[in-house]
Amino acid sequence: MFDLDAWREIFQSINKNKLRAMLSGFTVAFAILLFTLLFGIVNGLQNFFTQAFVDDADNSMFVRTWQTSKPYKGLQSGRRIQLKNEHLDYIVEAHPEKIQHISARKYLNVRITYKTKQDNYNIRAVHPDHRYLEKTIIDEGRFLNQLDLNQKNKVIVIGRLVKKDLFGERIALGKYVNVNDISYKIVGVFSDEGGDREERNVYMPITTAQSLYGNNDYIDNILIGYNPRLTIDRAVAFGNRLERELRQKLNIHPDDQSALSIRNMAEANKNVGQLTTALFFIVIFVGSGTLIAGVIGISNIMIFSIKERTKEFGIRKALGAKPASIISMVVKESLLITSIAGYLGLVLGTFILSQIGDSLEKYFIYNPSVSSGIVIGATVTLIIAGLLAGYLPAKKAAQIKPIVALRAD
């Protein structure tokens, strides 16, 4: 039961020993504050890498080509490497079990007109699988499908901001717009976690783009979603193997890094995972040291406090107080101080992270925050340490005979 008199005594004891209470609280609060800041910074680094690839699938690979920088097999350097449909078909046929999604991509810059509204937009001519590789969110209608590709349909899927530019709040789905003076039907409206830049894009079937804009089978790059069942190491090996095979088919020198590259999310995930794991263990080491220092600090203060109050305990026992009541009073006092101080350290640490968060983005730290579970666990650790620090010496002091306690200096 709640004993009001006992708690009144505890507050009176804290009030009489303000310096001791402040030192105990400061030790706990400072330890939790440092712990919160350290974990917040590490989480901020992890958030930065996650945000950088927020609009790409975690299992994506991106094949891009440029000009050669080295001669190879009698061919001059400076050749423009051009991907074609046959290269996409080769990847599908050679590695069917390792591919979940695949899409070519062709870029166009066009003028889109609807009644009196018009503006220039970037078009991405793609396959239906592109939706999953770019994490495209369909808000209205549908995305491109295989029938659109087979029939080379003049259909487009517009971004949310394209709709806002051309239609405002009116319905865009099913309407016809002119794309470089060719009429296209809007079959879908999408949004994207990549933000405004992504939502000003327009998608059309790649077969339509190849037929109407160039009459060729050229593609600009290839997006691949590797089989998610592959381990990171196997996905990295797959990307390396695919790069070697494409270099052979395109007659590119094995060491020519300018002509072809494959950005493999498996490699990025592996590198980020290794970095964050290393940082996590560093923070665990430093944070544990901080907590240990806090435990030692509060333990020393409690031991000194109880030794200082030995005569007080003797008087209490002489007046009939039981050892259990003395121990309970010390433990409750320790619990109260460590709990309040730990909470203040957590609140202060969280407040500092929220205030300095935006200024840390230039150091690759995005939205630094800390898991409440981790910090609460650290606070509970210090509270338990405070309880033990109060309980053990209090138990020893409570067992001293009143006459001996009264003689204590």
Q: Keywords, please?
A:
409 residues, alpha+beta, six-stranded mixed beta barrel, two-stranded antiparallel sheet, 19% strand
Strand and helix map with partners:
Elements: H1 4-16, H2 18-52, E1 60-65, E2 83-84, H3 85-94, E3 99-114, E4 117-126, H4 130-133, E5 137-141, H5 146-151, E6 155-159, H6 160-167, E7 176-179, E8 182-191, H7 196-199, E9 201-205, H8 206-212, E10 218-219, E11 221-226, H9 232-249, E12 260-264, H10 265-308, H11 310-318, H12 323-356, H13 372-398, H14 402-406
Parallel strand pairs: 4-9, 6-8
Antiparallel strand pairs: 1-11, 1-12, 2-10, 3-4, 3-7, 3-11, 5-8, 6-9, 7-8
Helix pairs in contact: 1-12, 2-10, 2-12, 2-13, 9-10, 10-13, 12-13
Task: Detail the poorly predicted runs.
Answer: none
Mind describing the biggest β-sheet? 6 strands, mixed, barrel
Helix content estimate: 40-55%
Structural class call reads alpha+beta
How many β-strand stretches? 12
Overall outline: elongated
Distance between the termini: 35 Å
Radius of gyration: 34 Å
Strand numbers in spatial order across the main sheet:
3-4-9-6-8-7
Could you spell the SSE succession in H and E letters? HHEEHEEHEHEHEEHEHEEHEHHHHH
Q: Beta fraction of the residues?
A: 15-25%
Average pLDDT confidence is 83
Tally of helical segments: 14
